[in-house]
Structure formats: structure tokens, C-alpha cells
Write a sequence for this structure.
């Protein structure tokens, strides 16, 4: 029996994955959110069960590394009413991470249910999430991926290639 090519999407039709490079010294790269900053990395949570972020320190040489990985929430895509909702390891607090070698990575996630509950407690409707990273040096670079999972409307091509 011969194998035939079948075009199937299971993971990519149920999740939306987006990759970025955070390079603060280069204004053309994706910048992450902190305290109301407008950023292209505010991700709408309306159609997903949750979001996970994986960040990897990619700077070569020097000392230090990726030292913080936090999730912020906002009431819209421009970063209104921004609040820290989860720090790496502890809810509602920044917690140090120790990604001090090139390739070290850390992960953080929040469910839509958690986000809604935090909003209710604060009297807000948080609809967007963004990760924020801090490194030892201002020119350190971080590669990061957002995975919004549990799509309420799965569709082929939900995750798509981006080739410039």
C-alpha cells in the first residue's frame, strides 16, 4: 500500500502561534509591553482558552541574561488599564528567572478563565495579554513565541508562516 500525501492540520488549526524577536536596541523589532506601552504584541484572548509564552535568551557573550518574564493584561489592544497578572512562578508578582546562558528559556501561561477572574476582582474586563521581559543589559535579545490555544473557532491556517 502506497502512502499518499494528506493535507491535515490538527495543532496549527487549533492554536495560533506567533514568533518574535525582542531586541530593544533595534527599534524595528517587536517590543514587549510594560506599564501601558503600546505594542504589537498585545494578543486578544476572546477566541481562545488560554495563552502560553516561551522566551529564550539569544544574546551571545557577556554576563547576565533574561531575568524577568511577566504577563500583563489590558482592557484593549492599545494597552489601556494595564496590570501585571502573572510573574514567572508567582501570580501578581515579578519573579526572577535565571536564563543566563544562550539558549536558556522560560515559560509562562494564563487561561482565559484566570484572566476573567482577575478582571472581575479588579472591576475590569481584561481582553488582551502581553508578555514583558527584562534582561541584565539593555541590548540583550530575547526570542519569544506566543501560543494561543483552545481556539473556539478552529480553522486551517490559524497559524501561518511569516516570511518577509
Amino acid at each position: 500500500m502506497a502512502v499518499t500525501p494528506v493535507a491535515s492540520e490538527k495543532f496549527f488549526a487549533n492554536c495560533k502561534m506567533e514568533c518574535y524577536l525582542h531586541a530593544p536596541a533595534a527599534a524595528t523589532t517587536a517590543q514587549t509591553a510594560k506599564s501601558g506601552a503600546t505594542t504589537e504584541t498585545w494578543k486578544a484572548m476572546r477566541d481562545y482558552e488560554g495563552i502560553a509564552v516561551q522566551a529564550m535568551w539569544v544574546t551571545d557573550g557577556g554576563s547576565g541574561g533574561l531575568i524577568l518574564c511577566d504577563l500583563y493584561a489590558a482592557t484593549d489592544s492599545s494597552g489601556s488599564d494595564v496590570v501585571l497578572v502573572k510573574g514567572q512562578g508567582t501570580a501578581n508578582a515579578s519573579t526572577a528567572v535565571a536564563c543566563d546562558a544562550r539558549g536558556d528559556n522560560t515559560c509562562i501561561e494564563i487561561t482565559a478563565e484566570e484572566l476573567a477572574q482577575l478582571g472581575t476582582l479588579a472591576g475590569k474586563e481584561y481582553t488582551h495579554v502581553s508578555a514583558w521581559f527584562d534582561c541584565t543589559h539593555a541590548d540583550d535579545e530575547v526570542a519569544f513565541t506566543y501560543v494561543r490555544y483552545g481556539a473556539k473557532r478552529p480553522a486551517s491556517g490559524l497559524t501561518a508562516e511569516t516570511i518577509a
Helices lie at 11-14, 112-122. Residues 33-38, 89-93 have pLDDT under 50 and may be disordered.
